[in-house]
Each structure stands twice: as C-alpha cells, then as structure tokens.
Amino acid sequence: MKKCSVLICLFLISIYCIAQDGNAGINEANQKVRSYFASGTSLMYAVGAVLGLIGAVKVYSKWNSGDPDTSKVAAAWFGSCVFLVVVATVIRSFFGV
After folding, report:
1. Using alpha carbons only, how large is the chain's radius of gyration in Å?
2. How far apart are CA 40 and CA 47, in angstroms?
3. First to last CA, the chain
4. What average pLDDT does the structure give for the chain?
5. What is the pLDDT averaged over residues 61-66?
6. Cα 71 from Cα 6, distance rounded (Å)
7. Which residues lie below 8 Å from residue 40, measured CB to CB, with a gap of 6+?
C-alpha cells in the first residue's frame, strides 16, 4: 500500500511539474509571436506599396492601349492594396503592437 501511495504522489508531482513548464512555454511562445507582429505589419505595408506600383504601371499601360476594362482593373488593384493596408492596421490594433 505504501508503494502505491508513493507512486501516486510521484505521479501527481510530475504532472504538476510538467504543467508548470508548459505554461512557461506557452507564455514564451506568446511573447515571441507578438514580437513578430511589428515586422509583419511593416512587411504587409511594403508588399502593398509594391503591388500599388505594379498595379499603377499595369493600369497605365492598359489606359494607353485603349482597353475598355481599364476602370475594372484599376479598381481591382486599388482594392487589393487597400485590403492589405486595412489588414495590417487591424492586426496591429487587435494585438496591441
């Protein structure tokens, strides 16, 4: 009976120790992920700027060639750039970075 109770106590202590390390690991992962949000949002702004330039060149070339769907292409490129900027801003404000 003593052996059984000692094994149960050791088992419970080991579970408690594992749970403590797990919480520390989760907190560390949380901090690391939050540290990437600032650079991630800056990257999204940069991608939006590059897409905006590419879209402007594409719309300009369509406009000069006289394509009738120039406004549709312009709206699509502008919408994608606005979407990237809005997503980056929402991520930054949501996670408090």
Report:
1. 27
2. 10
3. 56
4. 78
5. 87
6. 77
7. 88, 91
Give the Cα separation of 59 and 51 in Å (integer): 12
Residues 6+ apart with CB under 8 A from 45: 84, 85, 88
What integer pLDDT is reported at residue 83 of this predicted model? 85
Contact criterion met (CB below 8 Å) for 62 and 70: yes
Token representation of residue 80? 């994608």
Fill in the amino acid letter for 38.
A
pTM, entire model: 0.57
How do the domains of the chain map onto residue ranges?
A: 2-95
6-37 confidence digits (pLDDT tens):
777 666 666 665 555 567 777 777 788 777 77
The single-letter DSSP state of residue 77 is H
